[in-house]
Amino acid sequence: MRIAVIGCGYVGLVSGACLAAIGHEVICADSDDSKIRKLNAGELPIYEEHLDKVIHTARSSGKITFTNSVAEAVRAGDAIFICVGTPPLADGGADLSAIENVARVIASEARTPKLVIEKSTVPVQTGQQVKRALQVYGREHGATFRVASNPEFLREGTAVEDLLHPDRIVVGVEDAESERQLREIYQPIMDGKFACPIHAKGCPKLELARFIVTTINSAELIKHASNSFLALKISYANLISDLCEKLHANVDEVTHAVGMDPRIGPQFLKAGIGFGGFCLPKDVQAFIRLAERAGVDFSMLKEAERVNKRRIDSFIERVHSALWIVKGKKIGVLGLAFKANTDDIRFSPAIEVIGRLLGEGACLCASDPQAIERTRSLYPGISYSGDPYETVKGAEGLLILTEWPEYRALDWKRIRGLMMRPLVLDGRNLLDPAKMADLGFEYYSFGRPSTAVTTMA
Ligand code: UGA
Question: Is 279 a catalytic residue?
């Protein structure tokens, strides 16, 4: 089976590369010519761990090709994955125009039977609309189409690992042949039988029960429901953290013990400046709109969104409380990406904090292991350094805005000596308050003891 992947963003590129890595013949298309030129020149338009290795191997074995012609990819593929963006509209709903455009190209270019698979995150019933568009625009050519949904659960930073070693594969189908084809596509992953670019010693099999077959509507809903639940969990942990501050408890201790209950689980209970990125915030908004249109009161989710927005206000209040006037003060920033192990700054809480402080006239010096270039194009006026020690030199305060693990391993004694005032505001609860106190830092984080000499907001 030949596979076409339409859209070479995070989802499309990782999906295309991994499907090629497990043995399929894949053609990836994107109408953005600069992206395709980069890919054909052996460069990657994004940073994602292991992706370079996976694409290099696939290209060397002739399993993957890239084209700027969506029509060419459509003609070549038996199974076509739609991986184009679904950005937020002004009202919070998802903009599905790119999905419709692809459906129209598929309808007009297809001359052989096609399995059309939505992988982009879409509201429930988009599959039905795609089916209708294929029927309406493909009538003249007589090609047959089947539609399926196969939501992705990739996390940026661990996307290759997540695709090759998933915790579940969800396929929403309406007929047995679509299910058969999707099983065939994912069989190497189910069997753990492919040359794994990450684990040289091979991969475990995926339990049969983790290949979940549902209706198309349910598959679409599973994706939005998963991301929204993760957002709820983070906002819940952030409220617990507020409570810990007021009542002198420690959020790390509380969430650690709470997360040990297998019904709750330890992940996504980390308090801090809140969730960002191109998925959780927009998916929560889209899910709220969807529920409203369906007449279901999902105000619980609105509350999670409101709590998340308040995190930034709360952090800025802390900066003011510690530094008073920020205008003209040199402040160091560690972390720009919306989370660790990615260069993605879309809806990054760090970018929001930086924007606010720049608006107040702060002099910022920022560092990030991957996201400096992307941030520079947004804020060219900030001084940047790849070296965290340069970033903190002479600073009156240091903000930690992304949870890069390497920041934990920095020589904090040296940093203390380099700063004009040893003040750290840790927006990600990355460092140990007791150790920071021992080193002589004035240290603030969320829901944990502070070593404050000033009063916290
Ligand atoms: C998210 C989901 O986790 C994936 O399963 C999903 O496939 C993906 O969206 C998508 O829809 O494509 P991602 O956007 O890569 O993945 O990021 P997450 O790992 O979910 O983190 C989101 C934000 O929450 C980050 O800003 C992170 O720093 C923050 N976060 C995460 C917390 O503040 N606390 C936590 O405990 C966990």
Answer: yes
